[in-house]
Amino acid sequence: MSSQENDDLAPTCTAGFKVGEKKNIDELAQLDAADASLNKWKESLGLSHAQERFPDDPRTVVVQALVFQSEDRAIRIDVSTPKAIKNLQKNPITIKEGCEYTFKIEFVVQREMVSGLKFLQQVKRKGIPVDKMEEM
Asked: Cα 94 to chain center, whole Å?
């Protein structure tokens, strides 16, 4: 990836946003251990029995697939392996201008809790960037 492409995909900084103190799952489970309602809520999050779905994968957030859905069809694109991502880069999908669709990302979080996940989308037309959108 060229330096220009890296700059295009760099997220913007939000003024006034401060990243909270990072805590692992064990530390979060021990916080307010005497509060029964809080313990019940933590249990519903799965903190006490968190398992790694992909023990050989060092990533915390593992993106499995991208799903584009319109009124008449859905396209599920596997992005779970580096080979699948390279295939997508070689054969990008084309979405017609004016087409209405929804976009879904299927992912798994493992090993720790994640907050502040950011999604960045860049739209190009004939290789020229025309739109960039960020969601948090």
From this structure: 22
Q: Which two tokens stand for residue 94?
A: 């084309």
At 6 the pLDDT is 56
Contacts of 66 (CB under 8 A, 6+ apart): 76, 77, 79, 103, 104, 105, 106
CA distance 24 to 67: 31
For residue 78, which of 108, 102, 53, 106 has the smallest C-alpha distance? Answer: 106
In the chain, % helix, strand, coil (3-state, to 5) comes to 25, 25, 50
pTM: 0.68
Q: Residue 54 and residue 131: Cα distance in Å, rounded? A: 34
Q: How far apart are CA 98 and CA 109, in angstroms?
A: 34
pLDDT bucket at 76, cuts 50 / 70 / 90: very high
At 89, which amino acid appears?
A: Q
**Amino acid letter at 135?**
E
